[in-house]
Specification:
With 163 residues, this protein is an alpha/beta fold. The chain is built from 4 helices and 7 strands; from the N terminus they run βαββαβαβαββ. The protein has 2 domains: 3-96, K homology (KH) domain (GMP Synthetase, Chain A, domain 3); 100-162, R3H-like domain (Ribosomal Protein S8, Chain: A, domain 1), CATH 3.30.1370.50. Helix 1 packs across helix 2 (68-85) and helix 3 (98-120) packs across helix 4 (131-143).
Amino acid sequence: MTASNDTEVKPDRVTQLEREGDIAADYLEALLDIADLDGDIDMDVEGDRAMVAIVGAKLTQLVGPNGKVLDALQELTRLAVTQQTGDRSRLMLDVAGHRAARREQLTELGTAACDRAKAEGTAVKLEPMTPFERKIVHDAVAAAGLKSESEGDEPNRYVVVVP
């Protein structure tokens, strides 16, 4: 596992994130065995997070409707890591490329909202999203040179793109 992305992470922090990934992989492999599911575990460090992915066929039941099962599985995995390390984990889990595909969709959504805000000269409100989803949209908006903010209360918090 190596650090990727342009964000420089200190070597001792990379080692800590690699350990989080290893703990998460062990936890998830045990879970896959219990559930009698086939899947491979990929690990990486991206920015200041351990990234763990379960890849393989027929894993949609681990994603669930709108990623709800994936979100719960990620939280359980974070708790397993926290229990062993004593530190809160920000580990990101992906299953069958669901988050990667969603990231691409949200980046396109953010770019389209920027185009609309520029063309109409008014703020564009998007549908409610999870914190993970909002972060991706905020990043896409910033890359397009506009500003955005989150409004509302969880679970109905949403992004507003400002022209």
